[in-house]
Amino acid sequence: MRYGVRRLGLFGSAATDTYAPEESDLDFLVEFEPTVLATYADAYFGLLEALERLFGRPVDLVIGPAIRNPYFLEAVERTRTPIYEA
Prior knowledge:
Largest sheet: 4 strands, mixed
Distance between the termini: 8 Å
Oligomer: single chain
CATH class: Alpha Beta
Radius of gyration: 13 Å
CATH architecture: 2-Layer Sandwich
Number of helices: 2
């Protein structure tokens, strides 16, 4: 994939029946390939901008391996829907 994405998933309200298109942003969980580390910022912001253009709305892009809060991780995993996996 262009941005070196290993996994991409949707979570939060957009992955449930509480999604309100006129109000909600889209929450994505991403994991990059290890080879992307040298160009990490370019990959992150490039993917973020591409998703916002594609969907025409604000996007929150969360790096999966960076989540340290177990309560947040549990909430993410509860609603996560896989979109892409390399």
